[in-house]
Design a protein that fits this description.
Number of helices: 2
Radius of gyration: 15 Å
CATH architecture: Alpha-Beta Complex
Largest sheet: 10 strands, mixed
Structural class: mainly beta
CATH superfamily: Nucleoside Triphosphate Pyrophosphohydrolase
Number of domains: 1
Order of helices and strands: EEEEEHEEEEHE
Length: about 160
Amino acid sequence: MVITMKEEGTRFGVRVGAVIYNEDKSKILLENQDNGRYMFPGGRIDVHEDSENAIIRELKEELNLDVNLKLKYVVEMFLNSPKTKYHEIGFYYLTTIKEETISNGFKSLDGDGIFEWIAISDLENHKILAKPVKDKVVNKEITNEKLEHIVYREY
């Protein structure tokens, strides 16, 4: 059972995501959703599951990846959509893999999306749900040094 709560006009969820760089850190791997939005690979955290085990599970289920991960961001997002105010807490991990490990257009093993390598120089042209993490990648502000807490509000 995933950690998600819904009431009329509002929704709360907890998720994990991975910022997956290629070897020279010129591209990141994103999941292309059917609605024209992109997401960092990952998913929802189950009840009684910690974030590290959740991202390990999600990357195995979606991409059959076993990688070393480092927690980089805890992100609280308050997003406004036409019908719902959405509050999400996200745990974002960093890793690097060889680009040939996942081919461009790779269909998720769980069938939910298609993965694409996107050049960091082209990220501004892509709508990514976790905008504050996207901004850190675009501005080359990601380092492996310390854990950061980000609060992002649209309302």
